[in-house]
Amino acid sequence: MMKIEDILKGIEIVSLSEGINRVIENIEFDSRRVTAGSLFVAVNGSSSDGHDFIDKALLAGATAVICEKLPENPDKSVTWIRTADSSKALGFAASNFFGNPSSSLKLIGVTGTNGKTTIATLLYRMFIQLGYKCGLFSTVCNFINGKELPATHTTPDPVQLNSILSDMVTEGCDYVFMEVSSHSVDQKRIAGLNFGGGIFTNLTHDHLDYHKTFDNYLAAKKSFFDSLPVDSFALVNIDDRNGRVMLQNCKAQHFTFSVRAMADYRCGIIEQGFEGMGLRIQGEEVWTRFIGGFNASNLLAVYAASELLGATKKEILTILSDLYPVCGRLEVVKSAGGISGIVDYAHSPDALMNVIDTINEIREGSVQLITVVGAGGDRDKTKRPKMAAISAEGSARTILTSDNPRTEDPEKILDDMEAGITPDLKRKTLRITDRREAIRTAVMLANTGDVILVAGKGHETYQEIMGVKYHFDDREELTNALLLK
């Protein structure tokens, strides 16, 4: 419970009715969850406008409303708070209601197209091993000191987010590592949070179904760095041309990392195989269980952030050598017959190219790569033909299959993908809509020593078809198929 006047700190108010001393029981932006004594925040979302549900919220017992537009005849028994941006107001209100928990934590945000999950998760594991109590917000799962909480979004809504942060404070967490999605920035889900640092990985073609243009996507990422406080740090990958863009107008302390150019933190690959790779980080050699240039960059970001947060070089390198890949990120499954199966979450053109390039750099002699790949429904359609072309060009055989079609017809999604297959690539491309059958076919086609890449779903344990989620785990399917080989 909290007085309205305390909930409104930091919110830009256009107008305010009487009753700011009223005590609020909870904050809701979904009218279906409103109960007696709730503060309802009317947010104009991507699919619906909360202002259309104000009456429903009042009937459910809301006694205060934050909105951008007042009703024609506002109920005088209700406290009305008008603001220019109710999405931003929701973030600040939620933070205030839960006692501004981010101010009691060292909160580090990781943003970019690829690498967010790996970097955030490895930082969480790093600082757990360093002896700290930590929290994690990731696409795969949220954690509070080892206790697992299901993750429904990369970045939760402001109420859920601050509620979990409050629990992290109660549990005595010192550090919290958070994936910061472009959606969450654009929708102001992180408004009101106090970040101790921000990490930028890269920016490639993705989420244009939401942002519409690449410039909008870039602007969302950059606004996160623009909002970092002066006493925080901004750590950016300058191997991506947008890395330095993130530092423009950023008040935080600037730091750079690179595997190709001069930077504050540098790294190089000494050797690599499917079991791992040797790196030279800041002049020191370390063996890791990871493969690929993009993972070298991810590990360098983890090293740099750890050092910026006070860990010593020896501590960091010792733990780095013990860390293991994140679930569904270049996860290797070996068969008794010598076939290597790899499951990866790559679901954008750049991510898929990175994984295929990595495998092709490692494989030797007559070893062939067979790739199984699809594309999600109700998402950016422009990347579908690109992903098919990348797979067909970089693989000995490609099998186009269904991913999460959601509300789309999977056959039409595959039609879009096939549009990227040129006549000379058709001879080594198959189309098998059933994902289980596609994986089994890939295994049947593989010979001893070959590599099978199953891309797109990674850690996910479901397939979403017409709004229904069915159990489906690429790792299970690939393992079972390899056992029958």
Summarize the structure.
The chain is of the alpha/beta class and 485 residues long.
Question: What features would you describe in this structure?
Answer:
The protein is α/β, with parallel strands linked by helices and 485 residues long. It has 3 domains: 2-97, MurE/MurF, N-terminal domain (Udp-n-acetylmuramoylalanyl-d-glutamate--2,6- Diaminopimelate Ligase, Chain: A, domain 1), CATH 3.40.1390; 101-320, Mur-like, catalytic domain (UDP-N-acetylmuramoyl-L-alanine:D-glutamate ligase), CATH 3.40.1190; 331-483, Mur ligase, C-terminal domain (Protein-Tyrosine Phosphatase, Chain A), CATH 3.90.190.20. Helix content is 33%, strand content 24%. It is built from 17 helices and 26 strands. An 11-stranded mixed β-sheet has the order 11-10-9-12-8-13-14-15-16-17-18, sandwiched between helices. The protein has a 6-stranded mixed β-sheet with strand order 19-20-24-21-22-23, sandwiched between helices. A 5-stranded mixed β-sheet has the order 2-7-6-5-4. Helix 3 (86-97) packs parallel to helix 5 (158-170), helix 12 (349-362) packs parallel to helix 13 (383-394) and helix 13 (383-394) packs across helix 14. The longest helix has 16 residues, at 293-308. The chain is globular.
